Structure formats: structure tokens, C-alpha cells
Amino acid sequence: MFPDSVPQRIAVLGAGSWGTTFAKVLADAGRDVVLWARRESVAESIRDRRENEQYLPGVLLPAGVEADTDFDRALDGADAVALAVPSQSLRENMGVFRDSLPPDVPLISLAKGVEIGTGLRMSEVIARVGHLDPARIVVLSGPNLAVEIAAGRPTATALACTDHDRAVAVQHACATPYFRPFTITDVVGAEIAGTGKNVIALACGISDGLGLGLNTTASLITRGLHEVTRLGEALGAVPATFAGLSGLGDLVATCSSPLSRNRTLGRRLAEGLGLDAALAAGGGQVAEGVVSCRSVRDLAHRHRVDMPITEAVYRVCYQHLPPTAMIDFMMDQPHSPE
Ligand SMILES: NC(=O)C1=CN([C@@H]2O[C@H](COP(=O)(O)OP(=O)(O)OC[C@H]3O[C@@H](n4cnc5c(N)ncnc54)[C@H](O)[C@@H]3O)[C@@H](O)[C@H]2O)C=CC1
Ligand SMILES: O=C(CO)COP(=O)(O)O
Fold first, then answer.
1. 261 assigned ligand-binding residue
2. Which residues make up the binding site for sn-glycerol 3-phosphate (predicted)?
3. Which spans in the chain are helix H?
4. ipTM here
């Protein structure tokens, strides 16, 4: 089956490593893509040298990816729009894009995070700021380290939308021999899983930086999955989602890979860098777990969900808890059934 509604011209708003990689996936899937970049230097590098030298160096972008700094032009004639700016700037950007978004087209949400202050998930920010039907929003989330995908290494992902047909249309639009999307309907689960795993990856990076072993990593992944699932359930998510690609899949990839910016940041904290220095060492690329440990902790408090790993990461990032004491904090939690 190849539905008539498969988008052909797609605007990707945000030319960081994930927006650029997803633009390549779409072009490799046969779509016409316009990638909106904030900065002319990024658009120029893509136009003139077919490479995003700042965010995805060494990757040749196909001719199907055009780059533009004018979002009105990028959105003109688009029959799907992917949003690829970091979570905490999505509100501001949606406010600017809102009036130029084509009516009725699917909006593909790529950011992983929960908004500070409001506790809103990214699809909620998009729907509220854009005054649009949540059923138009398709959340893409899974084990999707950009650099691997850009190199054509196979992976799978989940496309979550309450409107199944819309998810199927996007599934057909972005499927390639190396990128295999599955559809689900649990938007809440996909978003909470994708947000929570960055915090757990930070904890795994800290553990790794302290020279602890795979038992520690496996314990963090398993208990991390448990606490993120509990939060998801409290918010109405389907527990099975957390065993899927946007749950366990993404958690394992991010917690295990040296390519993960969140895990790398955790390592740097364990090696003695302060938060600002550790962020600066990341070259300006976003590590969402730093903000998400705050917004997820706030949500957990609001819904009375116990999240000791998230709490420990929050204390390291914002309350000067030494990384070694983070492990003690977790090991000293009251004993409980699994
Ligand atoms: N890189 C990856 O492997 C993956 C990233 N993601 C998620 O995608 C989102 C974007 O991440 P990346 O592209 O990796 O980040 P990045 O750090 O590589 O790039 C961020 C992009 O956003 C732009 N940006 C920063 N602040 C902005 C603002 N205030 N307004 C507009 N644009 C702004 C930057 O210029 C840059 O183009 C994040 O939520 C991340 O968690 C999801 C899956 C995979
Ligand atoms: O979301 C990601 C992989 O699925 C990317 O993780 P990092 O932001 O930690 O690199």
C-alpha cells in the first residue's frame, strides 16, 4: 500500500545535526526537501559544498536537499513540515513559523524534551502555540543517533500519532533501506520516553566517567526505564510503549554510545568539569538531558512519581552534588520490591 497522501515536498525547520540528518533521510526516500537554517553560513555550506560543516561534517548531502534561511520560502508549497529546533526554543520558533505553516499538513516533531515551567510535551507546545489539531502532529522518536544514520547505518524508529493514517503517510515518506519507521498511537509514551532517556544517559555517562562497570550501566538502564515508565503511566501513556523503539530502544542506544551528547556530557562531569565547561566542550550542540532533568523532575513532583535517578542527575547538574556522591545517593534509596 502506498497512500495518495504521502507528502512529497517537505520543509525541515532546524539545520542542526538531527534536522540535517532527517533531511538526508527524506531526500534518500525520494522526497524534495528544503532545510531551513537560522544562519546563512550553514545554508551556504550546504548549498555550495553539499555539507553542513558545522553540525554534520563529512556527510555529503544529496541534491534533493535545498537549504534556505527564509522560512516563508522553505514552507511555501510544503506538504509536511518537520520541526528540528531544540526543545526549549520550540515555543519561540513556533510563534514565528505559525502564520506561515501550510494548513492541514502533518507536522513531524523531532525534538526530545519537556518544556521548563509549563511541563508541556513538545507536541503540546506545537499544538498550543500553532493553534492546531494535535492529530496533525507526528512524533518521531527512537534509537536515532544522527551520525550513524547520516552514514547510512540501519536503524528503526517510531512514528507516534493519534491519527494512524497520518502516521502511515509519514512512514511512507521517510522509509529508506537504512531507516525503518514503525507507527504507534501513544504520543504521550513516545515523548516521555524520548525525554527521560536523555537524563538516564547522562547518569550512564557519569558512571562510565567514574570507571564503574557494565553492571552499573545495566542497573541504570533498567531502573531508568522503570522510573520513566512510571512517569509515563501517570501521564496516561501505554506501558508497552516503553518496551518499544522509543523506549528501551532509544534508552539502550543513548546510554551505550560514545556518540551520544548526553552520555558524553555525563562523562565530562565525572571527569571533573563543571556544567558550563562540560556544555562548552560539546561545541554548542544541544544535550537535552541537562534541561530535561529539571523539567522531568518537576513533572514527577507534580504527579508524585518517585524518580531517584532523575533526582540524582538534577542534583549533580544544579546542586553541586559530586558525581561520586550521585552513585551513593542512588544506592542509599530505601529498599523496595522491584
Ligand atoms: N542529534 C541526534 O542524534 C538527535 C537529536 N534529537 C533531538 O533533536 C533536537 C535537535 O537536536 P540536534 O539537531 O541534534 O541539535 P544541534 O545542537 O545539533 O543543533 C541545534 C539546531 O538548532 C538551532 N537552534 C539553536 N537554538 C535555536 C533557537 N533559539 N532558535 C532556532 N534554532 C535554534 C541551531 O542553530 C542548530 O541548527 C533535540 O531535541 C535533540 O534531542 C533527536 C534524535 C536524534
Ligand atoms: O536522541 C538521540 C538518539 O536517539 C541523540 O542523543 P544525544 O542527544 O545524547 O546525542
1. yes
2. 112, 142, 197, 250, 260-262
3. 17-28, 40-49, 71-75, 90-97, 122-130, 146-150, 164-174, 187-209, 214-234, 250-256, 261-270, 275-281, 289-302, 308-318, 323-331
4. 0.98
